[in-house]
């Protein structure tokens, strides 16, 4: 197998690893340069619309709504729009009962009916809500989420003081006690950090629709979700890329513990695989060159690492170049995760770094290939290419 490290493929893999190290170093510096935002308790004036798409969420939706209505926020400046996306359980009746119980608040239920345009799934639900929204600022989240008590206040104050068109904010997993849950939480915080750092560089790479806010006018000028050729998912990043192109410098990451949104980690390996396959399925549809380059470099670096590990297993030798490649990847990822976890006071999760490092290498390569099919399970529905 020595020929492997003396040909063009070896050079390409080594180049991918080197570029990945440089990319992560840039993101590490960018994360550190994001100013932490603290609310000052100013009097707010922006009317906001909180949009919650829901499908078969009878176990979570009331907890989500309770977490919103108990916010430290002047609710005369807020409306909540819940969109029932063809649920087959008791989601809609539970929401309706909650609305009647909280009649003093502006809470509205929209029920999607029929099968038209269901290929857009969550996007269709958000579009229906935005069309009826009265807010200047649209805040989107998911129906299985809970929130920091000052979540809405922090988002709104950030919007009013920073003059932005779109806000990406942090989402973290609610921690379980299992190793699987804690490794997911650790890795996901790393993705939050990469998304934040990419926004800081001016070339956004990812965000999360569970904690996203944008001006209604920006949504409309960007064409909403009417663009052909985009997948059923991607309600977050594709919109962000279009708004960033239209309003350069007005897309920002809100670095604040008060803006945290909490969402459950995947309960099973199968759920995790389907979630990540859904994320990866968007890869072939990106038109933004920066996103494509980063995706290719990331996949190549992991493929290089996996190839190196397999080489060591089968050759029973450890070439110096392999050790350098793996150590460089390990060091830069650990330092990046360390600074992000330190900010969110989750450094104890780094206990799982080593096993997660090797698992991550394998699954990124496999998921990257599996995502090419653009077929996955999502909310009990089969989404196909």
Q: Can you put this structure into words, describing what you see?
A:
With 385 residues, this protein is an alpha/beta fold. The chain has two domains: 112 residues, no CATH class; 233 residues, Spore Coat Polysaccharide Biosynthesis Protein SpsA, Chain A. It has twelve helices and twelve strands. Helix 1 crosses helix 6.
Describe the secondary-structure layout.
Blueprint: H1 8-33, E1 48-54, H2 61-69, E2 78-84, H3 91-101, E3 107-111, H4 122-132, E4 137-140, E5 146-147, H5 151-162, E6 166-168, E7 171-174, H6 179-201, E8 212-215, H7 216-221, H8 237-246, E9 251-253, E10 261-264, H9 269-280, H10 289-315, H11 320-343, H12 353-370, E11 376-378, E12 381-383
Parallel strand pairs: 1-2, 1-4, 2-3, 6-9, 7-10
Antiparallel strand pairs: 4-8, 5-10, 6-8, 11-12
Helix pairs in contact: 1-6, 1-10, 1-11, 6-11, 9-12, 10-11, 10-12
List keywords for this structure.
7-stranded mixed sheet; 2 domains; 49% helix; Spore Coat Polysaccharide Biosynthesis Protein SpsA, Chain A; 385 residues; alpha/beta; 3-stranded mixed sheet; disordered N terminus
CATH architecture of the largest domain: Alpha-Beta Complex
Mean pLDDT level: 87
Judging from the principal axes of the Cα atoms, what is the shape? globular
Strand order of the largest sheet: 3-2-1-4-8-6-9
User: Can you count the beta strands?
Assistant: 12
